[in-house]
Write a structure and sequence with these properties.
The protein is an alpha+beta fold and about 170 residues long. Helices cover about 30% and strands about 25% of the residues.
């Protein structure tokens, strides 16, 4: 029997057989959830969809929610849904298990959801805030405001023999 073992999922693959263990779906990630966690997942997804236009997709072991960039994701676990929300601040709440910087402007806040009743304020407020500020925090809004002409370098000014305008700091 010719074949090989996938080093990712440890499944045996016959020679010539198509195998793609990287491709995953929401259904595959949520298939083994308990009834309580499934209800919590459905409510969480509905809440996110109500926020507005976005892309929802599975990636690795997470389900991502993004406008232009991901503003939160859900990592389904056996006992809880691990929700990671990207905000411009660390949330101080007993619901938040961990809050640490993920970039210069974003802080990820981890919340564990075990029941559908937990998908209400303040969690929904944090999701709304993350949705509304995702472009601003990613730097996309700043990129559109940048000047269209490059700033003249000091070496070019020196070559021309001109000085920078008075009162301007470098």
């Amino acid at each position: 029997m010719a074949g090989r073992e996938c080093y990712h999922c440890k499944q045996w693959i016959e020679e010539g057989e198509h195998h793609d263990c990287w491709t995953t779906t929401e259904d595959a990630l949520t298939a083994d959830l308990s009834e309580e966690l499934r209800e919590a997942w459905e409510r969480l997804r509905e809440t996110a969809v109500e926020l507005g236009e976005q892309r929802i997709y599975a990636s690795g072991s997470c389900i991502m929610f993004s406008r232009d960039v991901c503003y939160f994701f859900v990592r389904p676990k056996r006992k809880a849904l691990e929700v990671c929300i990207f905000l411009g601040r660390a949330v101080k709440s007993p619901l938040v298990r961990k809050a640490e910087p993920s970039s210069r402007t974003k802080i990820y806040n981890i919340v564990h959801v075990t029941h559908r009743d937990q998908v209400e304020a303040p969690l929904t407020d944090w999701l709304r805030e993350a949705y509304e500020k995702s472009d601003q925090l990613s730097g996309r809004a700043a990129a559109t405001r940048r000047r269209s002409t490059p700033k003249e370098s000091s070496t070019r000014r020196a070559a021309r023999g001109t000085k920078p305008a008075r009162g301007r700091r470098r």
